[in-house]
């Protein structure tokens, strides 16, 4: 069994960003990598993001943690997705069942692949508050080694059940949607309002949101999706201590509205 904790770190998400544009993927990965990012998340659902990510990692693959997903209604289709992932990544460090699709059906073959060493750990994801009960069931099954869920000042449902459960079970938590898919970035606060966060290394509103997520000690990885190399570097820079205390967290929540 691999060491349980995955973080705290900033990871690079690839939804809606890398699909089919291998050159863009290379630029974004290069910038994120240069700023210390080593965790990358993808899925067969994200167009051609997986092969773009694989090509962008090239000789960095050994040092990277690749998290991707199985998004398939049947084990046969899931195995086909996995076979392609092995071509692109060699091995999958965190293989997640995407949006809980057929998770019970996939577990048998996924566990065999983990046993054989082609998968590092198994995870499970969902983005919707309506899926919380089923996500909790999957976590309680004892057969997953990580969970991915949404968390930001506008989406806090996970704080009620899933984060306490993850803590109780010792399950690493990977957070998606730290900017609520940029809903939280539309009307950023005045720079002056972020002044109290400057001494904690925060220079911008996106960085405040990244640090807000990682300051919850139950969180291991915060995934930021971007197609902008500069944004990838800025997000990565918010992934180190000092972390926020209760006052800074409340300030970010108030500024998020
Ligand atoms: N069901 C699931 O398993 C699931 C669901 C959703 C997401 N995810 C994973 O979680 C990752 C993150 O979620 P997400 O991509 O949906 O949403 P997100 O990270 O909350 O938001 C992405 C948006 O934020 C913008 N952005 C990022 N950094 C920025 C910065 N420093 N300054 C200004 N704008 C910035 C991006 O625009 P720019 O391109 O202009 O930077 C993009 O429009 C995904 O990529 C995916 O890997 C998984």
Structural commentary:
The chain is of the alpha/beta class. It is 38% helix and 16% strand. It has 9 helices and 8 strands. It has an 8-stranded parallel barrel with strand order 1-2-3-4-5-6-7-8, surrounded by 6 helices. Helix 2 links the parallel strand 2 and strand 3. The longest helix has 15 residues. The radius of gyration is 18 Å and the shape is globular. The N and C termini lie far apart (42 Å). NADP nicotinamide-adenine-dinucleotide phosphate binds next to strand 8 and helix 8.
How would you summarize the topology of this molecule?
Elements: E1 9-13, H1 22-34, E2 39-41, H2 49-57, E3 65-70, H3 75-89, E4 92-97, H4 103-115, E5 119-125, H5 132-140, E6 146-150, H6 162-169, E7 173-176, H7 205-214, E8 221-225, H8 229-237, H9 246-256
Parallel strand pairs: 1-2, 1-8, 2-3, 3-4, 4-5, 5-6, 6-7, 7-8
Helix pairs in contact: 1-2, 1-8, 5-6
The structure holds NADP nicotinamide-adenine-dinucleotide phosphate (NAP).
NADP nicotinamide-adenine-dinucleotide phosphate binds next to strand 8 and helix 8.
